[in-house]
Sequence to fold (70 residues):
Amino acid sequence: MRIRRILPAVIATAALAGLGLTGVATATATGQSVPSVVTPYECKQGGGTPAINEDGNYCKGGTRDGEQVD
Fold:
């Protein structure tokens, strides 16, 4: 009789754990942001250097590092 009581609890726990893992995967996938475009002023204000003449026109360093400069 003891197994009959434990088995549904184990199944319910496994099902809830599975739902928790899919929630984490969804949150991770949607948490990624699209690279933004910043002005040279915003790049400098964040402590970076706008590399406008280089390939891709990206901000180097600071809080805006790697973002495209327009």
User: Anything to note?
Assistant: The mean pLDDT is 76. The chain is about 50% helix and 15% strand. Strands lie at 37-38, 49-51, 58-60, 68-69. The first helix runs from residue 2 to 30.
